[in-house]
Amino acid sequence: MLAPHTRVTALLIKQHNTAGCQSPSPKALCCSPVWCSVSERLRSVQSKAHSVLGALHIMVGLLYIGLGSVLLSSGSGSGWRMDETWYPVWMGAFFIVFGIVSFLSEMFPSPCLVTMSVTLNMAGAVFAVAAFILYAINMNNTSLYWMCRSDDDDYSFSDPKTPSIEQDRILQTCLSGRLLALLLLRSINGVLLVLSLLEFCVTISCVILGIKALRSQEKFTHKITSEPELHKPLLEEVTLNA
């Protein structure tokens, strides 16, 4: 017959081992205070890079909205895809949200926020690739062919008349302005292409750093639950109280 304090100790060990071997359900994980509470371990593992990456997210988002609005209001710098979907605006808003979440995951490094940041940045990488493709198509389709053309050019079937010196001067000035405007619109598209590549690199960096932090937290938690020496003070306390 075991003594009462021995039975209590054995029961405690059995309950702890059973709890350590079972994985928590998703519902229990979402409602767990540990899942949503700030982890000092994550704070020590995470570097200050999240603040820099979050600032880059917000910068790219603001430039997306600003430069995209310029293209949308130009009348000729945006294709029908941009005119119908306004993707520079809502993609820029998404990138700003990603940056805010990156800031929050560094200020309050809970497993919930870090996991949310990783998930959002995975989606951000997809958005960045899609934005690069869309801006490349828009840049290729940007054209100002309608400028410097007379209304009679499409309906004239006779031999064109020789333009006067004044008309030729106006035409050359118009062609120079068209070339400059086309260069400006394509330059804005080029900047947005570079920003899309930058955003892709930022999102991938956030994903890698977040996964490393979560893996480190998981290993640390597993080490605590599987280290037998850490349970000795608890067992001794239960035995003495019994």
From TrEMBL:
Pfam families associated with the record: CD20
Keyword tags: Membrane, Transmembrane, Transmembrane helix
Membrane-crossing segments per the record: 51-73, 85-105, 112-137, 188-211
Domain of life of the native organism: Eukaryota
Membrane topology: Multi-pass membrane protein
Subcellular localization, as worded in the UniProt entry: Membrane
GO cellular-component term (any): membrane
Signal peptide: none
Family: Belongs to the MS4A family.
Protein name: Membrane-spanning 4-domains subfamily A member 8-like
Organism: Solea senegalensis (Senegalese sole)
Lineage: Eukaryota, Metazoa, Chordata, Craniata, Vertebrata
